[in-house]
Amino acid sequence: MVDKVKSVSEVVHTIPSGSHIALGGFAIARNLIAVVHELIRQQKRDLTVSQGVVGLDTDLLVGAGLVRHLIMGGGSLDRFGPAHCVNRARETKSLHCEDYTSLSVCFRYLAGALGLSFIPIKSLLASEILERLEAGPGAENVKRSKCPFTGEEYVLLRALTPDVSFVHVQIADREGNCQINGPRWENEEQAKAGRRLVVVAEEIVPTEYIQRSPERTIIPGHRVEAVIHQPFGALPTAVFGCYDYDADHLRLYVEHAKEPERFKEYLKAFVFGCRDHWEYLEKLGGLRRMEELRADPILGY
Amino acid sequence: MVDKVKSVSEVVHTIPSGSHIALGGFAIARNLIAVVHELIRQQKRDLTVSQGVVGLDTDLLVGAGLVRHLIMGGGSLDRFGPAHCVNRARETKSLHCEDYTSLSVCFRYLAGALGLSFIPIKSLLASEILERLEAGPGAENVKRSKCPFTGEEYVLLRALTPDVSFVHVQIADREGNCQINGPRWENEEQAKAGRRLVVVAEEIVPTEYIQRSPERTIIPGHRVEAVIHQPFGALPTAVFGCYDYDADHLRLYVEHAKEPERFKEYLKAFVFGCRDHWEYLEKLGGLRRMEELRADPILGY
Amino acid sequence: MQVTEGTKSRNRLPDIRATEIMAAAGARELRDGEVIIVGLGLPEVATVLAKRTHAPRLAALLEVGVMNPAPRDTPVGLADSRIFYRATCWSGFLDVMGMNLHRGVVDAGFLGALELDRYGNVNTTLLKQESGKIRYVNGSAGGNDVASLAKRVIVIMRHEKRKLPLAVAYLTSPGFVGGRSREELNLRGGGPSRVITDMAVLGFDAKTHAVSLLSLHPGIRLEELVENTGFPLHIPNDIPTTPLPSAEELRLLREEIDPKGLHLK
Amino acid sequence: MQVTEGTKSRNRLPDIRATEIMAAAGARELRDGEVIIVGLGLPEVATVLAKRTHAPRLAALLEVGVMNPAPRDTPVGLADSRIFYRATCWSGFLDVMGMNLHRGVVDAGFLGALELDRYGNVNTTLLKQESGKIRYVNGSAGGNDVASLAKRVIVIMRHEKRKLPLAVAYLTSPGFVGGRSREELNLRGGGPSRVITDMAVLGFDAKTHAVSLLSLHPGIRLEELVENTGFPLHIPNDIPTTPLPSAEELRLLREEIDPKGLHLK
Fold first, then answer.
1. Which overall architecture, per CATH, does domain C18-257 show?
2. Is the pTM here over 0.95, yes or no?
3. Is the reported ipTM for this assembly greater than 0.85?
4. SS3 for A94?
5. Given an 8 Å threshold on Cβ–Cβ distance, is A86 in contact with C136?
């Protein structure tokens, strides 16, 4: 048995500035908060970030000024508000954003996961999304072409193979066999497209537990480089079956994210002001608050 | 709620001769025996059959002289012997066989399932498999090409979209939501590539059962046209978690499949000689034999 | 992730909200047995209403990988655990958007819009202010995929002049770009079929592909509609009135589907 | 589904079977922590032996969608439920052959062969008889995929003149076709690295890519080997002897891995 359990700071120390990291969160669900906080504390700069539908994790990284290039299908914090930091960075041109769609990012990951250097798609055609990609640095990742068999017009997408893919899961064993509870958006493709793969698990289980329902293993252990065990590692975003999102903190986040100055205060208080994720959880209300947010076993939230 | 449960003969009556049917069996596991027997009884002719790795189901259909064109990645009856009827039909040129590999058939189904008319692959290159495809009718389904981004050489495969895909599953509800126990080979891609999809289920469960573990739903009900409820529907091949293969009958089959005349006897006794699958199961030993073959709940066989 | 804004009451009827008329109109666009990609807000309300009335066999798919959920509590977004409850399948983008939408089996998809132009092109990416300053919003998420690939698209949005301009500030999701047919645009999906606003139901002319008025909501005057539309709108000679929700539809909407009025506010 | 035939004892040692020497030689080809695609029969026996001795961290993948099974009973094939037991993952072709093998993370794959030529090209599709008559066999299944994409390929087969011809009757799975490099052949995988027979262990010359003798099994004479090889074999000046399985390896093979001698017969 290989024990791959590492601390988040150990793992983040191995990630050079300038890396392309793929984040497995979606809006306000299963965000890589513990990882992103540590990336900010360790000031990993000039990052390229890819994500199907961006969430709070990417917004934090962009707000902290660490992202140079963003590859995304869009996104927001759902009803809590837009991704203020991402939108502002685009408006001030401090960020280059390659805009796609949910499916085209998923297909780029799929190609990467399958070891295909390209894959066709029927989205994007006749849209300004494609025109802007063709007019910018995205041009090297898209190409109009026809099917050799049917003659139908397609957009060919270049495979996306992030330097490091991060996925937040409910359950993993120490070797990295992972089981995801609830919908999985593009996590399987995103995880397997990565040159390196790191998972954050709410709970570590014995391999024997994995062997009881191997059909639920979405990521096999041999693909995983490190397993970070961090309960409540996605707060204030939700992890189905484990805990609900922290609506109060999400509102507080959005309030601060609206203004650069206030966002600095947020980072100071909740990221730089915390030695690790446990200290951060204390600031969110500690054990008592975590118990309030803990999911009902039937409802999953 | 839509009730899609139908009898195998009802379903087979809707399949015209000359159809392309995709079978979800693999060697001696989860073969579409009940369906294939009925196709033979109803003498559906000039079929095109596709299967990742052929098993007893395809061997039966070919032996019965109903298959004109076979698209496959290879196959056998494992240690019980080769697919005698398939091999003999190829030797006597009474069958046109398009040879692929496990992965290339899977990729052709994947393209079909995703609505892509083509998909690239790095298998087949420098092999006689590709040369023979290019020299025959398979030429319209393969094309050498280069990646527009990397210049790497690929084989482009045409999507495979069978007229009717058949899959044998352990569990389905009356709407067609299906859960497969054990490994799934190319079943998900094969099922979703089909223009029509019919499933044979060992057990029909209430939808509420499906809702208890929706992450195990491999085929969603809205894709399914009909659900055939047939316990022991795959015998003599195995269904993981339900029953083991019938080794005695497999040996008997292979003995008969070796000789055209003896194979006729087999068909007479076990296919034409049975009004339906229940009569066939009686010939295999009925309740007592089924109980011997029933799977151990822990081992699954 | 399709954006649909909360829509405050617009019509003059004392006891029926515009959002309730919109939800009922949306529900009437769905036929029994169809496969629908649902967005949050009114689209979800309309789909549930259809399922509870004339279309019990609808298959409702959510981008994230959820099929036919039966939420007990009202979710705030597509990634909200509340919308995973009692689903018949949990998968992901590749299955829902790839093996269903891109495969061509999705009959209808709902879209919200920041802007929609006379050819049904939708902008959900950015807004240009008077000053010329650009404000970014949510982008496409699954919007462009649905607009490109669903057999038909139903847009639900608030009816305002600035939201219905001659040309969108950014073409996120194509309708009939430049009045061209979908074939000319190399798009598989049939494109927009309806635009349901808080003032009217709009359709698209089979030849010109331009927006035309199908029905006015009760209490809405034509002048009012024209004033609030930024592009020339084809007006038929006699203008039907959008049917009001039935008593049973209103009961379902108010008591069962959105009792807190989260989306019907 | 890779074919590997049962191999009856060939060597002269009273109490050690050729199959046991082959299994031990196969096991020694695998390094700890590697990702292996396993075929049934001796390849599986060799993989399990490696895992129980020097390579506990091997990841063993089966084409059908099974990872790291720990069978309690000996399976008859890759679709035999016996080989699903206690796996850590059940998926399918797309995951194992696509997202692992095609992705390029598989270090070694095993192949069986009806025929293998001097450049490591493998035939598992058909045999040509003296009469010219063709007999079809199993075909590729995952064999061509493994040969094309695994970082290195290990062939395990019976050593007979007719099975080791100058040219294969059908080129199912490419080695170094025509003595060309894998780059020239546009193949990603590294190609065949070892051929383990019941007489010897063979390798491939880095320059000519032709088969060369690496070691003779104990008790096998060189003349015997040459007589039973259909193509010119490069013979080194001094010929090492294939190490015998250790006492512990023999115990594991006989008492734990294949007690019934199903594959070691």
1. 3-Layer(aba) Sandwich (3.40)
2. yes
3. yes
4. coil
5. yes
